[in-house]
Amino acid sequence: MRTTGQRIGLTAFLIGFALFVAILPLSRYVLTDKVLSETIQKEQLEDVRMATASMQGNVYASSFSFVGDYRAAIAQLNEGFKRRNENNRLVQDYAFPVTKAASTGFFPDNSGLFFWLILVLCVGGAFLYILPEPRTLPGIKNNGIYQDPATNRGWIGVVVCGFLIGFYVLLYFFPEYMTNWVLLFDPLSQLLNGGPASQWFVYGTLYTLVILVMGVRMLIKYRHSRYQQFRTLSVMFFQTVFAFLIPELLAFFHQPAQDLKNMWPLDYSFYFDYRIDEKIKAGTFGIFLLVWGTALWLLGVPILTYFFGKRWYCSWVCGCGGLAETLGDPYRQLSDKRLGAWKLERIVVHSVLVFAVVMTVLVLYTYWSGQPSVLGFLDSYGIRSAYGSAIGAVFAGVLGTGFYPVFGSRVWCRFGCPLAAYLGLVQRFKSRFRITTNGGQCISCGNCSTYCEMGIDVRWYAQRGQDVVRSSCVGCGICSAVCPRGVLNLENDSTTSRRTDPGPIVLGNNSFRIQQ
Amino acid sequence: MKHLIIIGNGIAGITTARHVRQQDSTVRITVISAESDHFYSRTALMYIYMGHMTYAHTKPYEDGFWTKNRIDLLRGYVEQVDTSGKRIRLADGQWLNYDVLVLATGSVSTTFDWPGLSASGVQGLYGLPDLERMEQFTQNIDRAVVVGGGLIGVELAEMLRSRHIGVTMLVRDPHYWSSTLPAEEGKLVGRHLLRHGVDLRLETELKEIQARPDAADPSGRVRAVVTNTGEEISCQFVGLGIGVTPNVAFLKNSGVELGKGILVNEYFETNVADVYAIGDCNEFRQPILGTDGALRKPIEQIWYTGRMHGETLARTLCGSRTAYRPGVFFNSAKFFDIEYQTYGTLNAQLTDDEQTYYWEHPSGEQCLRINYRTTDQSVVGIHALGIRLRQAVCDRWIQDRTPFPNVVSQLRQADFNPEFSESFTDQLTGHAPARSPDRRKGWFHRLFSATH
């Protein structure tokens, strides 16, 4: 039952959120000389200025008509270059920076006001909603989850899903239509890295903010469980410091911006030519970044996963995991538990791992040899851009996060993440980690399976008295927390003591003693 | 055996079916249930009402599992068992012939002859129909009365409180669940119930249920209960949690001998050849002893004993006649937020040869009790509230008659709490375990060390 404070909070949040959406179409767009000279490279400025002469001075009411006219003008210009075989003069797509710089009117003039208004309404409203929770007693808080349209794939879930998908499609494929959001974050970006905001800065900031706010919610929800609290604090810390602040500060000091906890193959562009060159150019520090990033996956993964299981990364450090464990927590129960989903998961996630490895090998081959084509038909540039849009954008973003309220919070981690697949192989075959089941105490209620975000049918193991040793388990510990009978426990012990066959525990006859 | 018919698709019946199929690929297996199309976990009923899960989540096997394993599921109510003709009759008139019949019909909620019992909004909690009725009769109500201070009573209270319905709980005894819990534990749970807003009335019994009959509902909707103290408590729902009774009424004239339940020997054999009874519905003629020498109850109404019955019977049905010989007793429950685990024999009242050790956390929400024999100090029972214990370790201590001092000094081995949990073993005042080199040094040390 919501308190008055919570109702006020929810209202404030919804107003802030509505305002955030409402500012998208709020600018007018005027292409001026100043806009072009700020955004276009000098050697192309004259060409672009000539081509867009008819647009200059026009006031566009929407970004659609503005971008449409601008793109048409540039296309015409490039058409001419192609006809004359002047391919070196082709103008790339400047639609995003041009649109952003051309924004004018009430909103761009007052974007600071909107920034604070939205921030205070959304974050303040969220906290008003979250903070009164400690009035209830500590314990598992899953009442009403399957009766609430926000968390049972009801209409609220569908609306949120629609928004998230729209957001990711804009972010990855049409950033020129979300320039008003980017304008909001320009001052913060100036402060942190000394430059204007990009759509990625907006994404990174929102991502961190969401993890922090929803992390506080998680800390309160699981205030009876130290494991959950430490784990949540850990993902909040790594997101804020490692994924957000350090890269921005590195950029501020003109160093290669890198998330020091992200690693290949999740960070699939780590070995792309421009990122290697950038590091080599940066000298000793750049070389350190290259060695560090390589050591992380080459040594860090096998060693730490051997001792702790893949949870050391997936539910304590990783940014994708961090979002899933905070923003995704209300949706964890929606993962698909069917056997068919498990079969699909194994095929797809390992295929992505193979794809990532092959793509990286080809990219490195091209880097060393200068040959873009391998074996005559594999084009490393084509393959890397296919990976980037199909896996990096569509799978990880649109599918992975957009569908939180429908498919649960770990779709990407379970079906798509090549690093998770690699960590999982170590966890499955050479690790001290397992979820121990406590003898015959399981009552097959199904809470563990329901709340497993990775779709593991935990109950299937628990009711057989068998340890859960699964490559996909991220060790979030929620199955253990929701178990009403204290049956499940996350443990590290010698690799040989993992019981992967059913324990003959339940009969209790002399010949079927509880296995020690 | 050509055709095995199992009446009841609960944990006992289904375990039999699965284990017979594992050992015998040819026998035809039919499982009949009046309640549901598929096996579901009865223990999770409360979580459906509370919105933690849906009915689908409570099914431990996917629907395709039964076809794949050629276990025929039949929805129907068995009205008559004709043991001389080896056949049964369903409510729709259909007769089915069996070679072997397994009765696994479970329980029904116990009731007494209270006036007004038939009022609508008065019910127990045992199966899916109960859940449906409860859903219907608790819409938009503000007060309910729960009768009975046992496991179902506390479940009913938790379910109702999850929907912010006021709950008055009538408990006959001076503290909660006094048939099983010693006074300290009973009081601990009682305090927790109060914290959750349950109006706990100890030493209070139900006398009468008052209803408000009208044209649409001649027996009337419940409007109040009257207690033995004469107090009238107005309410719109009454939940009965005073226990369950074997569901055997349909066997009255079948020739199968009945006591409170279906009478069986240690092989689950009834007085009629080829008819067996397992799970909640049976009653052992001779007392069954656990492997630790402790006496088991003649009627065991526990989830895992149903499973053990089913697994043991499956061995007998498949040719190796196996007696039921359970190990060290164990059980568990959860009272709102407090988990409870028990191992061995832990009497609410100490016997002459027993001594007890009790530790309670200063917060008053966690405790541990160890009962041991005065004669040789050997441990007979361990239970805990708010603390998770490792069954394999507790089981071994009790089975091996480990002396109490050894158990206390090795208590860390039985710690099954999640990582980083407060270390309760250090807090057992007066019995602090002796420092040994491998003693837990904290979470960092524990991360790297073997846990048992």
UniProtKB/TrEMBL annotation, chain A:
Could you confirm whether the keyword Nucleus appears in this record? no
Sorted alphabetically, the keyword list is:
4Fe-4S, Electron transport, Iron, Iron-sulfur, Membrane, Metal-binding, Transmembrane, Transmembrane helix, Transport
One Gene Ontology cellular component annotation held by this UniProt entry: plasma membrane
What is the annotated signal peptide range for this record?
Answer: none
What residues form the membrane-spanning segments?
Answer: 12-31, 113-132, 153-174, 200-220, 232-253, 285-308, 347-367, 387-407
Protein name as catalogued: 4Fe-4S binding protein
What Gene3D superfamilies does the record tag this protein with?
A: 3.30.70.20
Matching Pfam families = Fer4_5, Fer4_9
PROSITE patterns in the record, alphabetically? Answer: 4FE4S_FER_1, 4FE4S_FER_2
Superkingdom in the source lineage: Bacteria
* Entry's Gene Ontology molecular function annotations: 4 iron, 4 sulfur cluster binding; metal ion binding
**Do you know which SUPFAM superfamilies this protein is assigned to?**
4Fe-4S ferredoxins
Native species of this protein?
Spirosoma terrae
Q: Domain 4Fe-4S ferredoxin-type: where?
A: 433-461, 464-493
Transcription regulation among keywords: no
Automatic annotation (TrEMBL), chain B:
Name of this protein: FAD-dependent oxidoreductase
**Presence of keyword Flavoprotein:** yes
Give any Pfam family that matches. Answer: Pyr_redox_2
| Organism this protein belongs to | Spirosoma terrae
Could you tell me which Gene3D superfamilies the record lists for this protein?
FAD/NAD(P)-binding domain
Q: Which family does it belong to?
A: Belongs to the FAD-dependent oxidoreductase family.
What start-end ranges are recorded for coiled-coil regions in this protein? none
Keywords in UniProt for this one? FAD, Flavoprotein
